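Dear colleague,

Following up on Tuesday's group meeting, I ran the structure prediction for the two-component complex that the binding team flagged. I've pasted the input sequences exactly as they went in, so you can double-check that nothing got truncated or mislabelled along the way. The structure tokens for the whole assembly follow below. Feel free to forward this to whoever is handling the docking comparison.

Inputs:
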Amino acid sequence: MDTSSPREAPAVRIRGLRKQYARVAAVDGIDLDIPHGETFALLGPNGAGKSTTIEILEGYRLRTAGEVSVLGVDPARGGLDWKSRLGIVLQSGTESGAMTVREQLAHFAGLYPRSRDVDEVVAAVGLEEKARTRVAKLSGGQRRRLDVALGIIGQPELLFLDEPTTGFDPEARREFWDLIRSLKRDGTTILLTTHYLDEAEQLGDRAGIIIGGKLVDVGRVHELGGAEARVPIVRWTDPDGTPRESRTERPAEFVASVARDCGGEPADLEVIRPSLEDIYLDLVRASGAEIIDTEEALA
Amino acid sequence: MSTTDLTTVAGTAAGTRRPGRLALGGSRIGYEVRSYFRSPDAVFFTFLFPFIMLGIFTAAFSSAGDIQPAPGMEGVSVGAYYLPGLLAAGMLLSGVQNLAIDIAIEKSDGTLKRLGGTPLSPVSYFIGKIGQVFVTGVLQAALLLVAAATLFGIALPTEPEKWATFAWVFVLGVGTSALLGIALSSVPRSGKSAAAVVIPILLVLQFISGVYLQFYQLPEWMQNVASLFPLKWMAQGMRAVFLPEDFAVLEQNGAWDLGWVAVALLAWLVIGLVLSRLTFRWIRRDA
């Protein structure tokens, strides 16, 4: 357990985290600090270890090795006071839901020492019209909004969001992002896993990419992959029909020289600045074919 | 979703305290009772079931004549004879059947995992479940007794001692059933299989413990087997309350043996407490 004052220590501190299932290492030596107030996005393919990592931090799973501190507490020994400072949005549940949206939120609000106003949270996730509807009658996307509402009702210092916008339509996702930004302004630390790279770009102060249980890159979202990975790419087709590609820091100069060599306008010319998605996919490809789906490996 | 900012409540972690376990347990009881009465399965197969069975027994055997403890002695109607057994069955269903299935489903559908991530103590959760069993069990017994007296013309005892016996047998029986239900909920491997695992066990128990079959007519070995489980003792305690004194001769020892009823139910209460304490988990950690 961290003995220093919680404000000086990072909200989340991970050193040498490992989680071993039978023959598979689902998490294979992760080090990470998330300072207070930061929104950190954890990216990676299915089965890369994102959910295992986040569930260890939430106290749901026990680690095989390494040190973990969440708000200054070891999650394997986190008590009720510790839990009252967390907000957890798990991957989708399928609860029977005999309660109405408002009843469910009011009940959960009562579990925390300083919860948010129920009606305000209902409004913030856009469920005002469904407030008196039973949970069982909600659509998938509405249920997900309720999941998020239940995660923030206790006014958490640290919010875990495990693939929060799966099943949202594009508009609902934008509204959800606004909600997360408002939580961020309040100083909430947020740890998010997502499949959507635009979501990480929109929300994350920093992001990490997990592949095969290892954190292959961590950094500010716009610096992931390093400067080299972001060098613009120029593509064109030579007059003899050969497709060409070159990377350069000075694309305008380079294109001019290509034009000169071709003796005119080069065919199929494009200048590309790699997006987060390109960089991410390059990293996943570079890691080879050993991306194992943990769930499948265990089955 | 709207873009309105959420207000931060002024209170800080240092200034506000977590709600107490008992207070939260109380709020859980209200929540659990409400969700119980909103699920048609629970209401039909657990809450109304003994009432429906009493109606069937009364109607089916209305012309069968009275059941007498011995030839020439004063008897009671078939409905009146079955009332104590069905009260005991109601306690068993409200406790064991209801909770064993309910908690197994909550475990597999993510309800418990969600609760396990909140500052809700398992103690408060248990208070909610056991409280729900008591509230629904009391309402169920009241419904059965009122229906017996009004619809089915069954005379209820008037002596206060009888009702005092009823009270302690009921409280012990329901408490034991609730705890055994929590313990049994860890047996089914999934929520889907819960009903298939739990209901047959309880059905067999009801047949050998004097709920659907007249206990004194069962072979002795079956009576002995039934004596190992709590339902037989609940039914015996209830017969002591609702049947005339003369019927005591039909019991295994020719007496109501209320002392043994108390011992057996207390023993099972302790077993239920220990088992539920040992087996309950919010989630199967790393299973």
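The longest strand of chain A covers residues 24-34.

Cheers,
M.
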